[in-house]
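Moderator note: this is an archived Q&A kept for reference. The question asked for a predicted structure of one protein chain; the sequence and the answer are reproduced below.
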Amino acid sequence: MQSSWGEKGLTIVGVTSEGEGETVKWVQSKGAKYAYGYDKGGKLSSFFGISGIPAAVLIDAKGVVVWQGHPGSLPETAIAKACEGALPKPLWEWSPATKAVKAALLKRQYKVALDEATKLAEADGGPQILAAIQQVIGGRVTGLEDAYSKGDYLGAETAGAALVKELAGLPEKEKVDAVLAKLEANKEAGPILKAQKQVAKLRAAELSKRKEREAAVEDLLKIEKQFPGTYVASEAAELAKVIKARK
């Protein structure tokens, strides 16, 4: 998958709860050609509600989880859509000449990143990197607008607060300001936003005891019933399903 989609914006990161010795040995024996990291304590696995392996989570260029399940059933159509607006290569594969651009991107200082990208030679991928950054910016703004449109007010609030700073000095910031203004003026958004924060809190909780999981499911079903047909209702229902499946 990495060889097929790596040049199109997909970056695979393997995650394991095993130790370094076992992991390195496996990587070397299998000839794995992708990045990997360690999930000590299983916090990442718990966050995504993973109950069995192998499991995969697909995150698009806007930072949104768009698919989750067995990696063998991941459709290429989902990968293609998720790669829209993604950087063509992960930052660690960029040439040394892109150091200033990478530093700005890691800090999400997009205006600085664009300015530095214009200084890059074609041999260092300057035009491609500039276009990719512009796509990322456009994708982030579109993601914010989409979040608000579908009623994901917490997603819109969180993304908007970040983008106000990250897009400072760029014309795209006006679109962010417009969405945040609509969110503030939307009287129906307040209660839903509060419920979304409750769902997010339950999603991040360990819920190691059965009674805690049962109480969480009960709270989630109340949210689903209180806000029928809304984004938060679907969030609550999905999380309740995941928690119920945990042993």
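Archived answer notes: The mean pLDDT is 91.
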